[in-house]
Amino acid sequence: MIVKPRDRRALTEAALGKRPCDLVIKNARIVNVFTGEIYNGNVGIYDGFIAHIQCDPDNLNISEKELQSEYSYDAKGKYLIPGFIDAHAHVESTMMTPRHLAEAVIPHGTTTMVTDPHEIANVCGTEGVRYMHENSSNLPMRQLILIPSCVPAVPGLENSGAVFLEKEVRELLDLDRVIGLAEVMDFLGVINNDERMISIIKAVEERNLFLEGHAPFLSGRELSAYLCAGPNSDHECTVSQEAREKMRSGMYIDARESSITKNVKTILDGVKNFRYFDTLTLCTDDREPEDILSVGHMNDVVRKAVSCGLHPIDAVKCSTINVAREIGAKNLGAIAPGYAADMVLTESLEELVPSAVFFGGKLVAEEGRLTAVIENMEFMLEKENTIYIDDLKVEDFKIKTPCSASDGKVKARVICYKDFNSSETDIQIEELPVKDGYVDLSNSELKYAVVINRHKGFDTKGYGIVRNFGTHFGAVGSTVSHDSHNLTIVYDNPENAFEVARSIMEGGGGISCAKDGKVLETLALPIGGLMSHKSCSLLAEDADRMKRALRTLGLTQKENPLLRIATLALPVIPKVKMSDLGMVDVLEQKILEMFVL
Fold this sequence. Notes:
Layout: H1 8-16, E1 21-31, E2 38-46, E3 49-55, E4 69-74, E5 79-82, E6 84-89, H2 98-105, E7 110-115, H3 118-135, E8 142-147, H4 166-172, E9 178-184, H5 187-191, H6 195-205, E10 210-213, H7 220-229, E11 233-234, H8 240-248, E12 252-256, H9 264-271, E13 280-283, H10 289-294, H11 298-307, H12 312-318, H13 321-327, E14 343-346, E15 354-359, E16 362-366, E17 369-370, E18 408-417, E19 425-435, E20 438-439, E21 447-452, E22 461-467, E23 475-478, E24 487-491, H14 494-506, E25 510-515, E26 518-524, H15 536-552, E27 576-579, E28 582-585, E29 590-592
Parallel strand pairs: 1-4, 1-5, 6-7, 7-8, 8-9, 9-10, 11-12, 12-13, 18-22
Antiparallel strand pairs: 1-2, 2-3, 5-14, 14-15, 15-16, 16-17, 18-19, 19-20, 21-22, 21-24, 23-24, 23-25, 25-26, 27-28, 28-29
Helix pairs in contact: 4-6, 8-9, 11-12
């Protein structure tokens, strides 16, 4: 991928001083991500690209004509670093549209994002991807797009709103700003040469595009097989040894610091003694509005890496040129002649609070405020209701037991969360009380769970029992439920579950909770059941009210309770998850019967 200058000849002439630059950033302390040096200099910019850097790092007393430009910006001795590149992100997980997200992250120094729209793809198919592409056009930042590889994530184990095969992927590869294939989550399909996955990978390889990986806990021969198949990155590393093995194998590790999962410290603890960090990058993956407003975006991830012991220049490198090389972008991520003029001025390489942000050689944010104008746009998809659920009854939330267990007890498989802050689960067999032919959890720490398919043409419901979810009472429901985004509810009794479902369906999707038969709060997400029309600040207020309501139900263990429910139905994260077809054994890739007879 190359971001090309419109007139390379004119850029060359500007480098030679034969024509004036558009802008010169003067008196900057330039951070060189190629050499690790910092030196004083002036940066000349022409038509969005760096034409020349006037500097004398070796004190050779170079005599050179001063850069000519009608406009200049005085850096006043601040550090000038490349604009941050987010190695992996889901725009939908911010609950904002691409345009509102841009408004929020640009002042924090993020100038490029590698986005995976597989959330909206699972709901709206190819039209969902096209919507994200159109909504992210003509922005004062660069939102690159990867085509979702696994829609649904695991065929046969869940039903989503669309199915992507080779045909759909090839069709979407023709869109502008598409740079490759998004996280290849079906790692078992890849290493076992599943025809669906191999044909999709081949279609992308034919164009020499980026293949993004997703390989939690893969090791040894299975990791080697995955790398041989093509994908060469992973943002799912959660333990130190895993990061070491994958980096030793030449794999790019996108160290993640999201609103849900924070892995930067663990990964850096594991690789800190390595001599080189060329294949270490940083990403946000899923970051919510409140976090963006309060602590930042990619600048916060880089700040975290520095606080964990990574040298500030290495941390900047991991969030700029390393990402550019990972995705095959030849002129992004550095301050050098011929590179896109995406840059950030900051007082400190440890605090990383931008005082000015430049994109394409233009000032787009200053002192935490967006200075560029982002035009409002309307799209038909934003007006569609994507909740296709027939009328529900309270009885739909009762779990009927086998005929032989009308009263007394019944043995059942129970999904157990590893802890309150993890999305990892296991399974154990427990005896459950039965009353009038239904599972009775009225005097239990366990909770009911249901995944209701909300896409057109389906009428499926999967039931389960969970332990250590975190709520003491009440019901929590959401259509933000990775990756098929069906309606998922965890509840203490059917009445509360029904109220949550009713509230979400009336609003066209979102997150809701109820207690004592009454809805406490609902966060409306009417765009695909995933996103809001609101700006970052307004949405953060809504999300804060939702979080406070969730904490009253007992979700106090998590720093951020909002998306606790979001990964219960994610059948690519071991070991057992839910879907609209029932309980899923992730590693064995099969549906499990709830009851053990």
